Amino acid sequence: MNRRPIVITTNFKTSLRETYLFIRQTSLANADQFVDEAYRLLTRIALFPEGYPFEHRLPTKRNLYRFKKFKKSYKIIFKVLKTKVIFIAVIYARRGEEAYQKLRTRDYR
Question: Is 106 domain-assigned?
Fold first, then answer.
């Protein structure tokens, strides 16, 4: 099984860092574990990205946006294209609609 190339956006790194800093306020070990597990998941997701559910808050005609639930309260949001998987953000699952809409873009850095 071939893994698609992955793109990790600046927004993904920023959102992961913000979550890390939030968790670190109560536990450095848990914060480190959160980041390590998140990065391990990226490779697993890239093996079969179509196997994950559509992100209903980011609808498209081809259902490009998907998510992986992570640590009960978080989601790893990614976009599945024919040639690559773009990791967009780590987001608290109960965030409002506007937080999700900010993730919709064609400009990935």
Answer: no
Is 66 inside any structural domain? yes
What is the CATH classification number for the domain harbouring 82?
Answer: 3.30.2310.20
Supply the pTM of this predicted model. 0.84
Q: Where are the beta strands (DSSP E) in 22-84?
A: 65-70, 74-80
Rounded Cα distance, 46 and 61, in Å? 21
Q: Which domain holds residue 29?
A: 6-101
Query: Tens digits of per-residue pLDDT, 23-70?
Result: 999 999 999 999 999 999 998 999 999 999 998 887 676 778 899 999
C-alpha separations of 70 from 1, 35, 74, 77 in Å: 24, 11, 5, 10
- Residues of the chain with pLDDT > 90, as a percent, come to 60
Q: 84: phi > 0 → left, psi -120 to 50 → alpha, else beta; which?
A: beta
